[in-house]
Design brief:
Shape: elongated
Order of helices and strands: HHEEEHHEEEEE
Strand content: 15-25%
Largest sheet: 6 strands, antiparallel
Radius of gyration: 20 Å
Oligomer: single chain
């Protein structure tokens, strides 16, 4: 009977880890959604207010939405959707919204990077050609955040170069 106690403890720990990993699926899915939205935006043609086609670019940076302070105050509980959170132009351009209670906050960082394209391409300064889609969570409510992120950059012919998903402190 002495052997049963450690086995029960091991089984309980395994159940807890699997449960937490299942909760990280939200971050994986939504970072993927933001990533796909950014790529689609970059590949599409966009016009200026005067009707001229503008060089390919990503939407402007936004987030975290909701704020990291809101996430910290939730202490591991789900965040309720707040009206207007996803109405900003960048979230709309990415076709991204979260309508259900969620455990993560989302961020889209975009920037101009001169090193990601052919020097002969005359990308105007200020138009972002690189981005990082990011989610932060605090599943256990201890104030330490997990991070899920994926970065990419584009060039003049709409080729996208991206890296793999990067995860830090997955079960925080």
């Amino acid at each position: 009977m002495l052997l049963a106690s450690p086995l029960i403890a091991l089984a309980a720990d395994e159940v807890q880890v699997r449960s937490q990993r299942a909760r990280t699926q939200e971050a994986l899915d939504n970072v993927g959604c933001i990533f796909r939205g950014a790529v689609a935006y970059y590949e599409a043609e966009h016009n200026s207010r005067t009707g001229q086609i503008v060089p390919r670019h990503f939407p402007r940076a936004i987030g975290p939405s909701p704020s990291l302070a809101t996430l910290a105050s939730a202490k591991g509980r789900r965040l309720q959707p707040w009206p207007g959170t996803w109405d900003a132009a960048s979230w709309q351009a990415l076709s991204f919204t979260v309508g259900d209670p969620h455990r993560y906050v989302y961020q889209f960082d975009s920037q101009y990077r001169r090193d990601v394209h052919d020097p002969s391409w005359n990308q105007p300064r200020g138009l972002p050609n690189a981005f990082t889609a990011r989610a932060h969570g605090d599943l256990d409510g201890d104030g330490a955040f997990s991070t899920f992120e994926r970065a990419a950059a584009g060039d003049a012919i709409a080729s996208i170069v991206s890296g793999p998903l990067h995860v830090e402190h997955e079960l925080e």
